[in-house]
Amino acid sequence: MSADTVATRMREECRAAPAGRPCVLLLANVQYAGEVLTSTEPARVAEILAPGFRRFEGREVWVMAEFDPDLVAPPRIAEYEVNLPTPTSTGGAAEEEPAAARRLGALAASELRQVPLPVWRLLSSASGVPTTEQALLSFAEQQPDVLVVDEGRSSVAFRSEALLHAWRRRQPWDSVAQSRTVEALVSAMADGRPGLWSQQGPVGRYATHALPLHAALAGALPRLVADGRLLAQCSATVLHEALAIAHPDGVPYASVAAMLHYLEVQGISPSSHGEWVAWLHHAALSAGRAELAEQLLASGVPLPWRTIWTHWRPTGIFGQIRDEAGRVDELGVAVGESGLTVVTARDVTTGKNAYPKYRYIRQEWIPVTGEPASAPVEVRASLSAGDLPWSNARRSPGPAAPNVTFAEHTDSGWQLGTSTLPHPPNCPSGVTKGLYVDGRWVLAGAGGLFAVSVQAAGSATQDTYRKRPLVAAHTRSAPWPLPPSASAALRGDGMRDWLEETFGAGICHRLAEDQLPQGLDDPAARGFLTETGLPEISDFLHLAITPRGDRCLPEVAWPGRGREVPRQRRARSEAPSSGPFFELGTWMYSRLLLDGSTGRLFRDTTGGSPDPVAGSSLTQFFVMVRLYDEFRRTHFPYVADHKDAQHNLARWCEEIDGAAARAEAWRLILEGHDFEDSTWDLASYGAEWV
């Protein structure tokens, strides 16, 4: 059983148990969890599910988990532990002839417990012992203490799980044997007919469920998932298992493995193999992997729906993507000279907590091709309040657009005004609205918009996806690399262009050598001010830097010098150096001061902050500011990649300037504090969404 299946059964048992007292659950043979034998499901049950299942619908729950410590590591959280006696006999330990031992080792190397004879023959050949199916059947029938042949004499299994794992330990396969198995399976299916492997005999069914695991053990999974014709044939559950085996330290950034990982964390749990391949195709198109998308279509797997065009943001990517559509808050339709166009709007109102400045980004799209019909424009009214007569807020296009239907995606599925149309595909929570136009569904939400064609057959609505995996994702993301533009800026290359790319052209004010104040001796600070220039920034993290021409960088005294300071503030008011100090602007209700002797930045703590350190240098400080600005402007479609981006941003800042990242000001920033300015108004949904 998978961890999700175990969790579902645990819920059912708790719900059916007598009321009024705690539930006690015993999970037996946890070490044998999982559809395949090389599985992370035992660890997911023992380390995540069992310790975390403490209450259910208000009732206390006690979980006891039985496991074999030779196969599953002891859970880190265990209130009580009972050690059972070690079995006196493991069975099947008698010495076998080398050829017989290798046949049993090949059978144990299978990823399924019940192994068809053609699959055993293929595995035997991969282990260097070619043979026939009849010879293997005769051999199995001569091993009644070890093997069991099914009634139809078409498949074989070990008599017990303990025997199977004993032979796995006794005859372990190396990566070479696993590679030969991958080649044999791929070769066998290449000679078959187009279509689903699962419908092409026992070897095809085995390849569907086991090829990703053999590839992971051979170190070849990245090559497998990069080939869409092979990827399309592999089941979703086994692909997730294989990712965990191949990438124990996390899936690489922006890889196909990461694409698969984020499909799982979105909660996508397809009800059919075709639905899974449809989402693979959509994710590949959205990530710009056109070749992979074409290969998926060429696999011959029939799809219940297909993405025609997409402006949906790929998940697991840091920062803005050129020409991305951005979040869609409203969806509408307009009639122009060339026909119907789809209209999207995004709320970019700022100052919502005090003095709102209502603004919306509006754009039109051609529904057939997805090409922009207009450039983005800023307007002051939403679609529902503006001059657009048909939007998702009104849901009634009227006789002028009779073939248009709106739909809303809720926790209970798609809500349509009519049942005669094919329903949109089952979607994750980031997709919030739909518009049926020109024979296709245009779907929109947190990640942008895309269009799909839906087959009439099987178009009825389905159960909604969960917002996240039931237990946990099989994998996690490996640390993301620092963006190349940030790395270059830290080396002193391209900082000016990088800052002006987001804060606006001409915002960096260079100073001539004779404009630098006397006492500014740090060469790095002098170089930054003359080559990059002091950026003019406002309304961002309460940061206000306003260069003032010849009066730029006025020299100021360190707070507390020349006057009596209360004893409780004296320690933190002591100057970090002999200075002099120059005022750049304000940050977090305090002045931002540049130490002329060291080039370091400080807050003067007039707001009472106990930790005045702002950064080690101008370059480091503005790289961190620029990275955070990129983060706050990004339209992350889902909670998972938003949190991954936030985590990696904090890690980058720690690497860039550890002292600053650990100081109170940056700690508040990186943990997502609401600063009541426009910082959170650009893209993020805020605390409720996260």
Walk me through the structure.
It is a single chain. With 690 residues, the chain is an alpha+beta fold. It is globular, with a radius of gyration of 31 Å. Helix 7 (175-190) packs antiparallel against helix 8 (201-218) and helix 13 packs antiparallel against helix 14. The strands form 6 sheets. Strands 20, 21, 22, 23, 24, 25 and 26 form a 7-stranded antiparallel β-sheet that branches. Strands 7-17-16-15-13-14 form a 6-stranded antiparallel β-sheet, covered by helices on one side. A 5-stranded antiparallel β-sheet has the order 11-10-9-8-12, with no helix packed on it. It folds into 4 domains: 3-65; 98-298, no CATH class; 322-454, no CATH class; 479-690, no CATH class. The chain has 22 helices and 26 strands. A hairpin with a 5-residue loop joins strand 24 and strand 25. The model is unreliable at 562-572 and 684-690 (pLDDT under 50). The longest helix is centred in the N-terminal third of the chain and has 18 residues, at 201-218.
